[in-house]
Amino acid sequence: MIAGEEVLRAATRMVPAARAAALGQGLSLLPMTETLFHAVAGSLGRGALGFREVPEGFDRVLADWSAGGPVAYVEAEYFGGVGEQRAAVWESGALVLGPLRVEEGEPFPSAGSPISRALRRLGVAARAGEDEFSAVGLHRHRDSGDWVA
Fold first, then answer.
1. Do 73 and 62 form a contact (C-beta atoms < 8 A)?
2. From CA 109, how far away is CA 111, in angstroms rounded?
3. What is the pLDDT of residues 58-101, one digit of tens each?
4. Are 116 and 132 spatial neighbours (Cβ–Cβ below 8 Å)?
5. Which of 24, 18, 16 is nearest to 1 (CA)?
6. Distance CA 114, CA 108 (A)
7. Cβ neighbours of residue 124 under 8 Å, at least 6 residues apart?
């Protein structure tokens, strides 16, 4: 999950297993680690809204969190430069973008990758020659757990 620092700070107080990491431009990242998944999912399955790692019903939690500011849920799965992306954004309790997805082998649409579009919705500005993914520093780690290690 990606949101403003204050939004995720409030969310982590409600979920002790949650650990946020600072990104750029006033945003933070809350990785969906296995520990967090089990803390918020209980015995429910995976795959809400077509995402691989969203616990069933967790979209309602994201909608609740978005009362404090927009919240994006993003997934990227890459190996050797080939992969897929998914993203959605909630704001004021409602899903306002997505879910967006680009599968392996599909080109990004002219509007940009799902993650870049979600970051733009959160107010991220990229400089010439960079995308929003790089602008906030998401390229720093490849694995979710590395963000909170």
1. yes
2. 5
3. 888 889 889 999 999 998 887 666 778 899 999 999 999 989 98
4. yes
5. 18
6. 8
7. 25, 27, 132, 135, 136
According to the 3-state scheme, what is the secondary structure of 98-123? EEEEECCCCCCCCCCCHHHHHHHHCC
**Calpha distance 60→9 (Å, rounded):** 18
On whether the CB atoms of residues 37 and 53 are closer than 8 A, the answer is: yes
Q: How confident is the model at residue 145 (pLDDT cuts 50, 70, 90)?
A: low
Token couple for 137: 């520093």
Q: What pLDDT, in 10s, does the model give residues 91-101?
A: 999 999 989 98
Contact 84, 74 (CB under 8 A): no
Structure tokens at 55: 């616990």
pTM across the whole model: 0.84
Residue bearing tokens 């209980």: 42
Q: Is the pLDDT of residue 43 over 60?
A: no
In 33-72, which positions are buried (b, 16+ CB within 10 angstroms) versus exposed (e)? beebbeebbeeeeeebbebebbbeebbebbbebbebbbbb
